[in-house]
């Protein structure tokens, strides 16, 4: 039995450790958590695709996926795809969450049905997610071709009707595929988009450069310009690598005329903003017809690469010609073809070249076939040299590239997320990561009512000190987040403590950034600090939580005498009842003495003063009365009884010390006032933590269980802190510990050595076995 | 601190013994070397001994007197005049101070307001502020004399007036113990001597015809004298320009001779350079109103009298000899005024202890160590303007608003050196170091005035840090012996600095794009901003010597520039505070972010450690809850970090 329980305790500890690593996982900005009740509606919303991830708190290293999922969600909003997340731990959708590996996939729903399921390990980044989702979204519009025959079928189907944009992609889930699919989404009504992941399709369909391309590529099959009966369509290859901006520029050029006439009056050509090379076909009146044919053919052949302009030197004005070339004679040697390469000027940095054609390439043969070939050689050489230059530039600037540093940051972020420590250095320098500073900043325009906690100055501080028998002053720095956060509690407290007749409260404040001299005179060196002055003299610092209620209780207790003298049984009862029901404290301390116990009375009185503000102490100085009251609690006289309001397992506790020694009396009162089996909360945790004992925590116990653990706790035989945590409460942190296996958990101090931990566990094992049975 | 004290073995000679011993020696020496001092013997026994003697009751003498008095030290100030502030009874000649007297700043913070009050001395008496003496932005020097005397009187400083020190000497090879003889043959003795005489001897270069030149110190202020005259002023400093401004309205025109470039204070950030308030002559020169500035080497000049007028010739003038007949200063002048500044009076020292003077431009000041002690005379300290060799043309140590702080630093150094009272310090918890730094950079006046010279030093220890304010940063290698604080490990120094390449004569600090607003470029900032140097161990003297040029301190382990701020308010949550916190967290190795109690609780329950703030505050029962709106969201947020 014992070993079973030991194992059980260990399992709980393991579970605890495992959950620790997950606490660092990210909350989600864009992806909504879908409540189970709304799940049906969510996936059933008409005409959109819905991507859902069923989240369980068990997978390691989910952070990166969740971030990518989030990024993909905000990106795909544009394409009317909604993303959602179901938290199977908190609010499960039974139909899915019950499946064991549901969190290993992303589900795509359309019209209530699961349309597709993507394995999590293929969803490695935003593009992978988006690309896969696009594939499902457009599955009926964008066919995946398996062979060249499929492609020729497609050509025949759209012959004389639509141009086909065909792409070879290495795989689904890549950036290039995502970009292609975005165009398919946007231009699907104008062009027919098809793609293949097998390069053979392109090769066997005899597409240009198909054998030599190494990176995903795009071809346009100009089927719309062919006759219905044609077999294959003329093709143009998109010459660049697949990057959104370049593809966009290319697609836009597909609808420009094959060639245009040189505009008169230097109006812009339609090619102006398209970053195209320009090919001028220069002619005179006699050859114009022939030239138009050449221009038309060049236009078709160079689609997407160059714009073709017909220039008739007979009709063009001198100004037009001069705008093109310094030496206009060269243009008059018609027929001639002149090529102006895009970006040539900037690349050559030829300072003498003032007009476009000064950098032009002239070609004097005028037959279409060789011309096209020559032009393509020229263009491809130019492209290669541009790319080379770009690579050299990129290498030079490699470390300045935002992408690189972003990757580096991401690497470190991932690294620290995997680390043991909770608070690895934050990767993003510009983002506030101090929650208090952030909360204060967000609330910076909220007006605080500080009428009853007036700001004091070098003049009013001493005046106020004389005027008030009890003065509580917070010294703070206005811009300091903790000070600013506390100030709003301070404001609330001052309103609570407002005294109607005098229309003031004992609270006041000094801003040390305005009055450093006042703060220095009061020995302030940390901020904020709250100091108590009685009758003009400094009494003590407030050492409690920076919290409205805690501060109000402190001040209320300060306003009561220390100790309260009790002369009759009624007074004792009233004291106890009144103190405990007033709410300022959960503890009433009774000192039961006879007149002759002078030393004890003195010690008790002095303890009462020391504890003023924290506890309320009542003193009986009458032997008969003390014995009468003492008999109610079984206390001897002289004696001290700590009566607790909220402790059903130990309603009161007697001071067992024979000798009244102030430090031990004070310590006794502090410890005895704590309930023996409390519900653990952020507020009471520190008072248990400082006892340096292990915690035994009962999770979600019910009546009888609570009762029996409470009794064990009240017996105070074990050197542990017993406490409970309520599982029904929605507070998220409790999720950390919830586990069907683990009902009780031993929480050891992390500062302890491993031997001390082990010793402690072995002491506790018999006890836990008793309970679990 | 007991431990600290015991570490240093200290030899304190009983002061009575010292006097007795040195008495015999001095009289012997006196007779041998200075027959005139033989009469000292009788005076000596009349008991004019003090632990400290300060020579001079000017601003710095009074300032040091105040600190000594407050510390309960035995001291006496010797003043040659019949009241305090003798220099200011004459200077500036035209009676208008050029230190600003800014009475309104929109703030009640008294420390902050001292940043803009350049005249007041430091004291606890708030009535002793120049802002309460004059409503003028540039008050009259007469009011300042009154102020200084009120300062001495109200604070009951011990001054002996009418004591014109003639000779200062030492006995034998003793480290301490000085003798001071006045004009009546009275001899004062002291253990520690602080010379606070300022620099007051006018500079008079030697050239042919110098007798035709009137000094700034005794020129007449009667404007009628200059009416319709053509005037040449030698000098390019504030006194020269101040004089030009004063006489300009009645003269034909005024020429200024300057050996080197006129340096404008607003270009150099150096208040000793030409202040805009005095630069009227540049305005009229450039607006072609006859006046002008000429660059000339005064040492090569000859002044020749022709009748009532004076003509100027250059002796080694290769440029104009023979061929050229357009020498700029060829027209004769009616009046020539010399306004070439002042130098330190070293004539009062016996030749065995004449303090070494500075080199080059700094020869007008005694050469001193960073602890204000003479380079060559041990135990001889300086205060005030004459300490400016340390930061000449770099900071404000030669001016009241600067040396009131270096004088305080001197006092703290002497307290440790002579009385084993360590430099005042505050012990801080780790979580409060940043608040204190931010508070200081937002209000501290000493750091602000004595930028690049005085710095706050944070000695990091196991429990937090010890904070020392306004220590001369050049003493960093000797921090332990100079201040009495052990610093075995990490040390942070915070100083304020202008950008290293931002300003200087001839630069245009008003050009566009001088402001730096992005925190990652904080180190490029030109304007004054806080800089933090972190050393994993105290740098050595050698490190200090080998520091990079233009640097005030050796290369630190880590360096942090707080981004400059137009409002000089360094409390913006992200731009200033967040980046400072990251720096400090690296230094301390802690996470000092603030958390609400709920987050601390959660981390305490689920992690093997909690952040420093949770540990120091929440776990001690001083956690922060929020009054109303943000606790819940803060819990979820904190888990994402």
UniProtKB/TrEMBL annotation, chain A:
<dbReference type="Pfam" id="PF13848">
    <property type="entry name" value="Thioredoxin_6"/>
</dbReference>
<dbReference type="InterPro" id="IPR040090">
    <property type="entry name" value="TXNDC16"/>
</dbReference>
<feature type="signal peptide">
    <location>
        <begin position="1"/>
        <end position="25"/>
    </location>
</feature>
<protein>
    <submittedName>
        <fullName>Thioredoxin domain-containing protein 16-like isoform X1</fullName>
    </submittedName>
</protein>
<dbReference type="InterPro" id="IPR013766">
    <property type="entry name" value="Thioredoxin_domain"/>
</dbReference>
<feature type="domain" description="TXNDC16 N-terminal">
    <location>
        <begin position="33"/>
        <end position="133"/>
    </location>
</feature>
<dbReference type="InterPro" id="IPR036249">
    <property type="entry name" value="Thioredoxin-like_sf"/>
</dbReference>
<dbReference type="InterPro" id="IPR057642">
    <property type="entry name" value="TXNDC16_2nd"/>
</dbReference>
<feature type="domain" description="Thioredoxin">
    <location>
        <begin position="456"/>
        <end position="556"/>
    </location>
</feature>
<feature type="domain" description="TXNDC16 second thioredoxin-like">
    <location>
        <begin position="136"/>
        <end position="257"/>
    </location>
</feature>
<dbReference type="Pfam" id="PF24508">
    <property type="entry name" value="TXNDC16_N"/>
</dbReference>
<keyword id="KW-0732">Signal</keyword>
<dbReference type="InterPro" id="IPR057639">
    <property type="entry name" value="TXNDC16_N"/>
</dbReference>
<dbReference type="Pfam" id="PF24509">
    <property type="entry name" value="TXNDC16_2nd"/>
</dbReference>
<dbReference type="Pfam" id="PF00085">
    <property type="entry name" value="Thioredoxin"/>
</dbReference>
From TrEMBL, chain B:
<dbReference type="InterPro" id="IPR036188">
    <property type="entry name" value="FAD/NAD-bd_sf"/>
</dbReference>
<protein>
    <submittedName>
        <fullName>FAD-dependent oxidoreductase domain-containing protein 2-like isoform X2</fullName>
    </submittedName>
</protein>
<dbReference type="InterPro" id="IPR050982">
    <property type="entry name" value="Auxin_biosynth/cation_transpt"/>
</dbReference>
<dbReference type="Pfam" id="PF13738">
    <property type="entry name" value="Pyr_redox_3"/>
</dbReference>
<keyword id="KW-0560">Oxidoreductase</keyword>
<dbReference type="GO" id="GO:0016491">
    <property type="term" value="F:oxidoreductase activity"/>
</dbReference>
